Give the backbone structure.
Amino acid sequence: MNPKHKTALITGSAKRVGKTLALALAEDGCNIVVHYGRSAAAARETVREIEARGVSAWAFAADLSDEAAVAGIVPRALKLAGRLDILINSASIFPPEDFLSADPKTWDTAMMVNLKTPFLLSQAFARALPDGTPGKIINLLDVVAMRPQNHHFSYTISKTGLAGLTQAMAVALAARNVQVNGIALGAILPNVNDDPALFTRLAEKIPARRTGSPADVVQAMRYLLAADFVTGEIIRVDGGRHLV
Ligand SMILES: NC(=O)c1ccc[n+]([C@@H]2O[C@H](COP(=O)([O-])OP(=O)(O)OC[C@H]3O[C@@H](n4cnc5c(N)ncnc54)[C@H](OP(=O)(O)O)[C@@H]3O)[C@@H](O)[C@H]2O)c1
C-alpha cells in the first residue's frame, strides 16, 4: 500500500513513538487521526506538525480502559476523516510489577488497554472497510513478549496475547486483502518513570551496543505498509536483544 492520500488512525500518537510514526506517515502523504488519552496539548501540537507536512489531521481523546469509549473511536475517526485505511495500535500501559506483586486489577487494565482494545479497534476497522478495499493493521509489541522477564508482568502477558492476536487476525483478514503485522520494539525510548541512566546502561546488554530510536521503528512501519504479501509477521526492532 502506498500511504499517499490514505488515512491512518494511530492510538496514543500525541507523543513519543506514536507521534514519530504519525509524522513519518504524514511525510509520506497520509492523513492522520491522532488518538490520545490525557495529552491534549501535545495532541494539538502533533496535529499542527502533521498539517505542516501538507496533509490533514484530526485529534480526539478516548480512554482505552473504557470499553464504551473504545467503541466510539472508529466511528468518530470515520466521521472526521471520511475513510480509514491504516490502523496502528501504539498506545499502551506499562505497570511496574513482577509475578508475585502483580494484582488482578492491574492485570485487567493491562489486558484491556494493551490487548482487548487493539482487538476491538481492529474488528471495528475491518468491519468498516468497504468490500475490496485494502487495509493495514500494525500492532506495536515488545520483544519481552517473546522472551519473558520477571518484570512488568501483566504488560508482558498482554503483549504476548497481542502477538497471538496479530497472527490470528492476519489469518482472519488475509483473503480480504487486509494485512496484520507487528513490530516488537526493544529499548527505543526510556520509560517516563525510569531513571534515564538505567536506560543508557541497557545498551551493554544489546548486541548492537546501543539503544534504538523511534526512527528505527519508522523503517519497519514503512516496510510493513509497502509489503502487501507479508502478513502475520512480527519484526523485531531491538538491535538483536531477543537473541541473547
Ligand atoms: N518506548 C519503548 O522503548 C518501547 C519498548 C518496547 C515496546 N514499546 C511499545 O511501543 C508502543 C509505543 O511506545 P511508547 O513508549 O511511545 O508508549 P507510551 O509512551 O508508554 O504510551 C503511548 C501513549 O499511550 C496512551 N495511553 C495509555 N493508556 C491509555 C488510556 N487508558 N487511554 C488512552 N490512551 C492511553 C498515552 O496517551 P496520553 O499521553 O495521551 O494519555 C501514551 O502517551 C507501546 O505499545 C509500547 O508498549 C515501546
In short: The two ends are 34 Å apart (CA to CA).
